[in-house]
Design goal:
heterodimer; A: 654 residues; Jelly Rolls; CBS-domain; B: seven-stranded mixed sheet; 11 helices
Chain lengths: 654, 232
């Protein structure tokens, strides 16, 4: 009896589903048989595990899945489903191809091996009803809706997939794809123990504030460990002395324990440097006590990273200011690809990588302007050197064209000052070109007379662009609606910026033109096998991450920002700012930010791969380069963008 | 015996054996009516089944493993997909081990045929037997039933190989050697390649092939079971 119970309990249930088996006949079914059951459906399980979202399931959950499936065969040209609602099942294409059409018969997707449709997918894509048609003879796995529901309840990772596009699905994707395999590099492989350069400097908690400060000063350290019986009890930094002692006029004879940060965050010397950097960034701290076997081993500071990492942004920027010619600057800018690699390896977000890389470009620009002023003398009238486009938005990754302009004080007189600024602009532009920021083919550079104007001239330009918008001109000039002052008289620029924002805010006619412009780049519908599926059903072998993924979001954010009169320039900042303003829904803005981060990080990893392979980084990816996971989430990102483009067009273009 | 085949149809013979037979797994099996010959093919349950054997002669060779899954109308149900190893009473000949990969020590941990046969018969109840080159499975089952229970095995049989031959004849195409093999036949319908020679994989492969063949029957009315079965 006991025996029968045990076996009955352990069986995967295949036989029980068929009906009752007399105990006598099942007497010898062994554990081995149970394993066999799994092995035999392994082919189907392996197919599932290779495709998203099944790849998110645990081994155990995955093993349960094959036996829930039904298999169907649809001849070319037949409708799927042939009866009932498309939501009754989740359909997984095992072989063949299926097209999905909307109610207006418009093509929504072409699906190949491993692609899913049906079940809740209808509202995933934002379409209430749609229908599938087999384009080729297709073998399709069906998972009943009730089973999908149950799996979604039990496996949140799995359920994300079925939530509306965007939302948690994209956020989830951003964190998962961060674990890409470039861990051999830099901080990922360095142990903290190898980075600590000196013995720990410590004081007992009973020492006075004054004594402690004096030791810190003698030892030339910006922070000190407070230890008792070789155990760490606290930490004190320069900043603590300033904020907690000097600013408050505290008596410096008090014990140091009264102002220390007790029980500070620590890491072990065997931890990886990457982890330390994350901890410090997260907590916004610059000093991290390091323990070895529970004992104080030393202090890790933010500057250790700069010293350790010759291609860190801090190091690059500080050496930029030591250069005296364009050649020297070019040798530093040549290290930018390596910096991108390191940042990508350290799992920095695409947005922060954009900021870091752009900070280097900014510094090169500033240094070139300093060198120009050294050579041509101080400027005769105040000027503002203004970057446009991706540099203005702090969204550079690989090197791109230079887009810049000069805003001059209204005291500017072309006759007497013209030569100076022309020479200055030429010097900087040539220098940037030497550093790999090649001349803008559209001539949007301060070297052309048109883009080197006094404030009044710029106001005239914007007045014309905003009050008499022309679609063609707007395409060229929309880059001038992303402006950031890099160097010079910031007030000149601020006045211009305020002037143009006052004109754009709520300006329906102008915004309609900008909205039309923002819709000029459409993301693809998705992927079909090794092709990119473009609306209208055409195929392409590669797709341009920049123009199909990033530019549409940047364009949308620009319209929102101009409509709201927001000062933000960076796309993430713009979306964050306008989310509360009513130009775009909170959820919509959030989804766009996630979509941008996902596509941008995909681009960065793509470019990092190219750099590693010794190729010039570009924006073109082939669907072959994408994992099934990435494809699925990229499709999501595209879908978010399409939805928001539709909303924008409803709002301004009806 | 063969004269009965022409005098009485399958269902009549089933009834006759049911009345004659003592209690046991085979009688249990016969108590459920076979699916009606006039049924729309989509209303019928099939058992897609495959054996791996020590050879091709039912009279002298033995079954080493069985794999099966139900085809319910136009869909293959993986929920009851089953694979069972059967312990042979003789050593496994090397020539067959090369094909199916079942070796003596693995087979030794398996169940004897007398325990597995009731499971197979139970799974077949009320269904049509579905296999690629079904004569093998049918003959091995028949021999097993005669040896263990003393009575013959009866079942409506759908043979995907026979359906494929009909397809060729209808289109007046010549059949070349190898054309009728399971993998080749599947490829014609755009079905994916599976690793061959595992009883369950082959059973699923035959089940899927059947779904494809049924979908490809060009007729105004959906075929009935009698249009698909082979005479047995």
């Amino acid at each position: 009896m006991m025996d029968v119970y045990r076996r009955g309990h352990g069986w995967p249930g295949a036989i029980f589903k068929g009906g009752l088996i007399p105990p006598s006949t099942s007497a010898n079914l062994s554990c081995e048989w149970e394993q066999n059951m799994e092995i035999e459906l392994i082919e189907i399980r392996d197919f599932l595990s290779a495709h998203h979202p099944f790849d998110q399931l645990s081994e155990q959950a995955l093993n349960q899945m094959p036996e829930m499936l039904q298999v169907r065969y649809f001849r070319r040209g037949t409708t799927i489903p042939d009866s009932g609602s498309i939501d009754d099942y989740l359909y997984l294409v095992r072989s063949g191809a299926v097209e999905i059409h909307g109610t207006q018969d418009e093509l929504l997707a072409q699906l190949g091996e491993g692609d899913l449709f049906g079940y809740r997918a209808s509202h995933m894509e934002g379409h209430a009803e749609f229908q599938g048609t087999a384009m080729e003879d297709s073998l399709v796995y069906l998972l009943p809706a009730a089973d999908v529901d149950r799996f979604c309840r039990e496996h949140p990772q799995f359920s994300y997939f079925f939530e509306p596009a965007g939302g948690d699905r994209l956020r989830d994707a951003i964190s998962s794809t961060g674990e890409d395999g470039s861990s051999q590099l830099g901080l990922m492989a360095t142990q903290i123990g190898d980075m600590i350069s000196r013995e720990p400097i410590s004081m007992p908690p009973t020492a006075s504030i004054q004594e402690t400060a004096s030791v810190m000063s003698d030892e030339r350290v910006s922070s000190i460990l407070i230890t008792q019986d070789a155990k760490l009890v606290g930490i004190v930094t320069d900043r603590d002395l300033r904020r907690r002692v000097v600013a408050k006029g505290l008596d410096t004879s008090l014990p140091i324990s009264s102002i220390m940060t007790a029980d500070p965050k620590t890491l072990d010397a065997s931890d990886y440097a990457f982890n330390a950097m994350l901890q410090m960034a997260r907590a916004n701290i610059h000093h991290l006590p390091i323990l070895r076997n529970g004992e104080v081993a030393g202090m890790l500071t933010a500057t250790d990273f700069a010293q350790r990492h010759t291609t860190s942004a801090v190091y690059l920027v500080s050496s930029i200011y030591k250069q005296h010619d364009a050649q020297g600057l070019a040798s530093i800018s040549a290290k930018l690809p390596q910096l991108l690699l390191n940042l990508a390896a350290a799992d920095a977000t695409a947005n922060s990588i954009g900021h870091v890389i752009t900070a280097v470009v900014d510094s090169i620009t500033v240094r070139l302007l300093q060198l120009a002023e050294e050579r041509f003398g101080p400027p005769p009238v105040p000027y503002a050197w203004v970057a446009a486009g991706s540099q203005a938005r702090s969204e550079q990754t690989a090197k791109s064209d230079q887009d810049n302009c000069l805003v001059l004080d209204d005291a500017y007189d072309p006759k007497t000052h013209g030569e100076y600024f022309k020479a200055l602009a030429q010097f900087v532009s040539d220098g940037l070109n030497a550093c790999g920021y090649v001349y803008c083919p559209g001539e949007m550079m301060a070297t052309t007379d048109k883009w080197r104007q006094p404030l009044a001239g710029w106001k005239r330009y914007f007045n014309q662009w905003i009050n008499q918008p022309e679609p063609k001109a707007l395409m060229l000039t929309c880059v001038f609606f992303d402006l950031r002052c890099i160097h010079g008289e910031k007030n000149l620029f601020r006045e211009l910026r305020q002037y143009l924002l006052d004109k754009t805010r709520g300006n329906q006619i102008f915004l309609a033109y900008m909205a039309g412009n923002a819709l000029s780049f459409k993301p693809p519908l998705g992927f079909f096998r090794n092709f990119v599926l473009i609306s209208g059903g055409e195929h392409d072998h590669t797709f341009d991450l920049k123009h199909t993924g990033i530019v549409p979001i940047v364009d949308l954010a620009r319209v929102y920002a101009l409509a709201a009169g927001s000062h933000a320039i960076n796309t993430q900042d713009r979306l964050k700012e306008v989310a509360s303003g009513g130009e775009v829904s909170h959820g919509g803005a959030h989804d766009l930010r996630d979509a941008l981060e996902f596509v941008s990080s995909l681009r960065i990893r793509h470019q990092a791969r190219q750099i590693k392979a010794g190729e010039a980084p570009n924006n073109y990816m082939s669907p072959d380069d994408l994992s099934h996971f990435e494809r699925s989430h990229l499709k999501d990102a595209f879908s978010v963008v399409r939805t928001m483009q539709n909303v924008l067009s409803q709002r301004y273009l009806r | 015996m063969s004269i009965w085949k022409y005098l009485f149809n399958l269902e009549e013979r089933r009834n006759w054996w049911t009345r004659k037979m003592p209690d046991g797994p085979l009688r249990d099996y016969y108590e459920t009516p076979f699916p009606a010959r006039d049924s729309d093919w989509r209303q019928v349950d099939y058992l897609a089944i495959d054996f791996e054997t020590t050879g091709l002669e039912a009279s002298q060779d033995q079954i080493l493993s069985v794999g099966y899954a139900t085809v319910r109308g136009d869909r293959l149900i993986l929920g009851d997909a089953t694979h069972i190893l059967i312990r042979p009473t003789v050593d496994i000949p090397e020539a067959s081990a090369v094909v199916h990969g079942i070796l003596d020590d693995r087979a030794a941990g398996a169940q004897p045929l007398e325990e597995v046969l009731p499971i197979i018969l139970h799974a077949l109840k009320g269904k049509a037997l579905l296999a690629h080159h079904a004569a093998i499975e049918y003959e091995f089952l028949n021999h097993a039933c005669r040896n263990l229970y003393g009575y013959p095995f009866l079942c409506p049989v759908v043979d995907t190989l026979a359906l494929e031959v009909r397809q060729y004849r209808m289109q007046d195409q010549a059949i070349r050697s190898g054309d009728l093999r399971l993998a080749k036949a599947r490829a014609r319908y755009g079905l994916p390649r599976y690793p061959a020679h595992n009883a369950l994989t082959d059973a699923l492969a035959a089940g899927e092939l059947f779904l494809a063949q049924a979908a490809y029957r060009r007729s105004k009315r959906p075929p009935r079971l009698k249009d698909l079965i082979v005479v047995s």
